[in-house]
Structure formats: structure tokens, C-alpha cells
Predict the structure.
Amino acid sequence: MQEHKGIITMQGNPLTLKGNMVKEGDMAPDFLVLAPDLSPVRLSDFKGKVRILSVVPSVDTPVCDTQTRQFNKEAAALGNVEILTISCDLPFALGRYCGAAGIDKVHVCSDHRDLDFGLKYGFVISELRLLSRGVVVVDKDDRIAYVEYLKEVTQLPDFEKALAAVSKIA
């Protein structure tokens, strides 16, 4: 398993990313995560659609909450685009969060069990067993059209660039 040391920081402190980092043009690996009701969710469940993978460390933090709410807000205008927010939060916690925050347009998923998504996409923070922050846009043919790994985990992603990538392929 690949390790990428010091390419991300949290509050300026260097961390190690574990897994296979993806890049634009790569085929998007299928993965298995869990919905709040513990049902399996796979990237392939949304085959034939444009997908935004919004990756966050924990919805219980202000930056992750903002990122999730922003994509939930954008979802209504995007039409036939599926948005998955993926974290290592427990499925039950994600369910409570969605209810309390009014998150109803994105699929909020947990990678806590196997880190299947995090390792296949290179988002696992080794030191914390959390996912780093980022965005991946996957086109209808399962090719990665856009990817952003945030250098500083406490910063928000570039929503405009991610949404521009979606507009280009939708």
C-alpha cells in the first residue's frame, strides 16, 4: 500500500496519506461503503450518472458540515448528478447528522468498516484513521474528470472548480 508523507497537513502539522491516489483520466475504482441504515453503497450503484464524491474527515466538524451543506444545496441545481459524502463517521452518527442538519439530497456514507474507498482513492490519514478532505468527480463512463486533495485538511475544497468539471461533463 502506498504512503504519501507530508503532502497534507492538519493545522500545519504534516500527515501521511495512505492508499492509491487517483488522478484525472483514471478509471474510477468501484468501492463499498455503508449508508446510515447499514446497507451497502457502491460507486457502481450510480453507473451511467455523473457523481461527485465529497470526502470529509467527520461531519461533526464545522468545515465538514459546511462542505456537506454546500453540496446538499448545489444538488438541487445539478439535475442528474449523484453526490456522495464519504467519511469514517459511524453510519448511525451520519443518520443523526442528516436528520439534524436537513441533509436530504446527498448520499452520506461511512467508510469506517474497511476503508475501502479511502485506500482505493488515497484519502486515508494514517495517523488518524480518518479520511482527508477532497473532491472527486466521476463521469458517466466511470472516468475521473476532476480530483482535489486538500493540502490543508481544515480548508474547504474549491467548489467552483468541482462544479465547473461537473458542468463540462454533464
The two ends are 33 Å apart (CA to CA).
